[in-house]
Structures are given as C-alpha cells and as structure tokens.
Design goal:
The complex is a heterodimer of chains A (66) and B (154). Chain A has 66 residues and is an alpha+beta fold. Chain A contains one helix and four strands. Chain A has a single domain, classed as Ubiquitin-like (UB roll), CATH 3.10.20. In chain A, strand 3 and strand 4 form a beta hairpin. Chain A is elongated, with a radius of gyration of 13 Å.
Chain lengths: 66, 154
Amino acid sequence: MGKPSKWKCYTCRVEMEKVLDISVKYGKFNLPKAEGLRCPECGVQYLESDYVAEQVSPAEEMLSGK
Amino acid sequence: MSEISRRTFLKGSAAIAGTTLLASLGLNASAEADQSDKEKAVSPAVSDRNTAERNAEEQTAEQKYELIISDEIAGLMEERGIREEDVQEVVVFAESSGKKLYIEGEEHYLARKRIGKFTAYVEYSVSGSEVEVLDVYSHTLVFPDDVLEENGES
C-alpha cells in the first residue's frame, strides 16, 4: 500500500496513493517501474510533474535519439 | 520552488536528469511486448459505462473553456510542445467525463488525456466559467495496465 497523496480520485472519492511500481512502456520496450499516483479503487494512474520533468522527459529524449 | 527557478533547475540538470530511469533502463529494458496486457477483456458493464462517457464527451466536444494562461505557463507550454488546443482537449475531457483528480475543499484539479502519441497533463483551478492553468506537462510513455488506456479513454 502506498503513501497517501493530497490528490483524490474524482470518480472514486478516495485518496490517491503514492506508488513506485507503475508499469510503463516506451514503444515496445518495458521500462523500469515508475513513481506516481494510483487510485486504490479504480487503479487509474498519474505521473507527477516533477517526476516527468526530472526523470521521464530526459529519458524519452535519449531514447528518441534527440 | 517558484516556476522560474524550477525551470532553471530543470534546464541545468537536464544532462544528469533521468539517470535513475535510464540507468535502470540499460539493465532492465526488455523488447518483449507484453501481449497479456493487450488481451485483457473489458466487461459489458464497463463497456456500457464507457460508451455513455464517450457520448457525454462527444456532446461537450464543442464546449470551450475560457483558459487563463499566464506568461509563465505559456512559456512552459512552448518549452514542452503543448498547444492551447491540447490543454482545452484535456480540460473538456476531464470536465465531461469526471476522469480527474482533485484536492479536497478546492476547485483544483489534475487531468490527463492521451492525445495522439503523447499523454498531456493539465493542473488547473476552476472559478466560475474560467479555468486557470497552473501546470502542463506530457510524456510519450504509456501505462500498459492503466484502466483509462485499456479502455481507450486516455
């Protein structure tokens, strides 16, 4: 079970949980699990702004060969 | 941390940023497509609900929100390649479907939507008919086991 977040899922009205095991893919490649938010009820997942800016975007740039 | 200082930080750290993900990627990336994720079935009840939500989305597809975008956010949008139409699309989807996050006691939301090859996120607040954009970001990664993406909603 992840840590609670300030965000709540609008559909389920429950606190989103901070998790470290979000499955992500880039094209057909399975990447390491990502950090983000998951609703414990419906399972919807979000990445947060800082994580995307600091971890995901640079990785995507390198993977795309930019 | 203010937006300006955060942007400066991000640019300055771009060369080393992503090391966690990339370092792991070098060791862990796998070319094996996970077919089982693609083959998961959607129940009829979920399918009906999704159809209703898509209809609601289509009905409000022409609805536009009055977006308030500061110079700072406009700069972020340009830097991150996110257009005003993309922001509008995310907000319309979130407001029509209810697929969004919120902060208790505030008109403060975070929404995301898959638009073409990337997922756009918009953090915003609502005041009457006005939508103030507080942050925008995007990624091309996909979530293979995410409920929205499985249902083709995001």
